[in-house]
Amino acid sequence: MPATSTAERSAPTLRTGSLGTADITFFVVSAAAPLTVMAGVAPVALTLGGIGAPVGYLLAGVTLTVFAVGFTAMSRHVRGDGAFYAYITRGLGRPAGIAAALLAMLGYNGMETGVYGLLGTATQDTAHALFGADIPWLPVSLAGLLLIWYGGFRSIDFGAKLLGVLLVAETGILVLLAGGVLVKGGADGLSLAGLAPGNVLVPGTAAVLACAFAAFTGFESTVIYRREARDPNRTVPRATYIAVAFLGLFYAFVVWTVIQAFGDEQVVKAASDDPAGLFFSAITTYVGAWAADLMHVLIVTSVLASLLAFHNAINRYSLALAEEGVLPKALGRVHPRHRSPYVAGAAQTVLGAAVVLAFAAAGADPYQQLLLWVNTPGMIGLLTLQLLAAVAVPCYFRRVSHQEGVLRTVVAPVVATVLLGVALVLVVTHVDLFTGASPLVNTLLVALVPAVLVLGVALAWRLRRSRPEVYANFAAEPPPQPSERPAASLTTTSPTA
Fold first, then answer.
1. What does residue 187 show for φ and ψ, rounded to 5 degrees?
2. Cα separation, 233 vs 21, whole angstroms
3. pTM above the 0.85 mark?
4. How far from chain centre, in Å, is Cα 448?
5. What is the DSSP letter of 306?
6. Which fold has domain 12-472?
7. Percentage helix, strand, coil, to 5, in the chain?
8. Which contiguous run of DSSP H or E holds residue 45?
9. Alpha-carbon dihedral 161, 352, 431, 193, rounded to 10 degrees
10. Adjacent-strand bridge partners of 491
11. pLDDT tens digit string along 136-188?
12. Where are the domains of the chain?
């Protein structure tokens, strides 16, 4: 690592040992926005895949659990703060790692910035449903930018506590809906017909799987908080498994209970006729109108929780890349009191405001265009990073001495590579489900991902020539943090040049 001055060594750093397993899980699950995903996307999955849709969420969960086996094994040996790009660098070399770093910035920024459009429309819908008021979306989105900036500016402990409250609230309303359906026995009695192969393997299954994989976006961000975690060699893997298991089982259960609410024969028509109102209709019938009003409010808080979780993830990626020397050094500053990457947070807020204002100035629809057009390349980018990370795991363990078993270092990563490759193909070939846009727009949105990867490789070559010290130290192993227990012993080799 490059030598550091006394001033650099005494500069404020992130607050180590602050986050436990539950805290990190709150960040990850909140980013997925379970209530928003269920109320907003699950009706589409039901329309396309019928009563077998819950199985799609289980299959996506199983795939990502297999991915997590190798991913978490590598997390015990790679202490870098760059998460995906650090893993990919160690396994596939610096050019791939630098390309992955740029793609991560596209992915996480896209996932956050687009959601400000959803915040505006969700707040509009809630105000209209509860008060009959029509409010403009742009002031709401801009106010959300300031609120999320403040949440990221405060300490990570503050963010974890806030997300914990919001997550309990949004999952609680879905549990309330499920409880009402189960107690009253559904429309035609409780049925497991959706698990039958004939109802799972239907023409719309591929589209359901695409929706299901999209619903897990951001679950892998557990490793981003490694520096701030207590005993990260244990905390990070636990949080990863808990997050993916919870999301897979919870999504499948909630979609199944909504099917029971309308009945196997009626639910597809209900979802097709009024996808936006499906969950509100169900909770009104089985719990009461007051619960539907509460669900409207909690969808807004669910969106805010997702925004804060992604904002914190982006800030830490920016901090890591600034420390690497790839991004401007100022983005690596940490607030002396809150110990947050506050300059990176301010920069991300300014970028988000610029994108939101640009879409507003162009007269774009906040949902159909700001949300869907900006989110979609972000989602595809993060899924691509998962695929590259899965490929990197066996490549990394082949080049080091370690005590991990072959199941973790070879079998699971290879299986995950195949499954994630299939998932990526499903999402790309069904991208119109996520954008509602023309073929030309869809092509441009999908093409952003390989374009960024090519740009990243070009940047790596330029760094190797013009700033060899930055290139040589990219994703280098940092010294252990005080909160870390030593991982299983291994001898590492430097990333492939």
1. -75, -40
2. 11
3. yes
4. 18
5. H
6. Amino acid/polyamine transporter I (1.20.1740)
7. 75, 0, 20
8. helix 34-49
9. 20
10. 401
11. 999 999 999 999 999 999 887 788 788 889 989 999 999 999 999 999 999 99
12. 12-472
